[in-house]
Specification:
205 residues, mainly beta, Thrombin, subunit H, 2 domains, 6-stranded antiparallel beta barrel, 6-stranded antiparallel barrel, elongated
Length: 205
């Protein structure tokens, strides 16, 4: 069975008559239809008829970029329903391969204490995969795309904790009332990248 590439919350670009609309998948039925809420609908959509050809573009969780032709089935602005694509061929755009991991990590936040910036632990999570460019975090804490986040974890009892700042690029629902966050390292140092490179050669928890 083919892997499902769509998920609720996936950000997607819809192109109709050369006009582009940003949206988020609200729900879908594999093989049938996909419901999308548009963030920038306009009056043009009111006059578009069912079965109009459209194109959807998005980057899946596995780093594959898709550019797919499909049909508009229904519209109830700002929501539209498109036909579930029959053919889906993607192109990999990920610069670094992801390696599965299982690192328990502290989630930190910066606060001001007596005029000085200090880091305070606000929660926990699990880093479930990593690469030289970023990682995926599973946690019960809630964030939005574009939020900054600080993580700190230990991978070797003889080494100092690995601490870094990242920016949340994508969000996906995870099991047990948790959420997956795709995180891109923010201005990583050369030493940090060397540490991650060594870690990925032997990704034990």
């Amino acid at each position: 069975m083919a892997k499902e590439i769509f998920y609720t919350g996936l950000r997607i670009l819809v192109e109709i008559f050369e006009k582009k609309y940003q949206g988020v998948i609200m729900e879908f039925s594999a093989g049938e239809s996909i419901s999308i809420r548009l963030s920038n609908p306009d009056a043009t959509l009111v006059h578009i008829m069912p079965d109009t050809e459209c194109k959807v573009k998005f980057i899946a969780e596995d780093g594959m970029a898709y550019n797919i032709d499909t049909l508009l089935l229904k519209r109830k602005i700002p929501n539209i329903i498109i036909k579930y694509p029959v053919r889906m061929d993607g192109v990999s755009i990920r610069k670094h391969p992801r390696i599965s991991t299982s690192y328990w990590t502290s989630i930190m936040d910066e606060k001001n204490e007596n005029g000085k910036a200090v880091m305070e632990k606000i929660g926990d999570g699990t880093i479930v995969d990593m690469s030289l460019g970023g990682c995926k975090l599973m946690t019960m804490l809630q964030y939005k795309a574009g939020n900054h986040i600080h993580l700190s974890f230990e991978y070797d009892e003889n080494s100092s904790p690995v601490t870094f700042k990242g920016i949340i690029k994508n969000i996906k629902q995870a099991p047990y009332d948790t959420t997956y966050y795709g995180i891109e390292y923010e201005q990583p140092s050369e030493d940090f990248i060397k540490t991650i490179d060594e870690l990925l050669k032997n990704p034990t928890a």
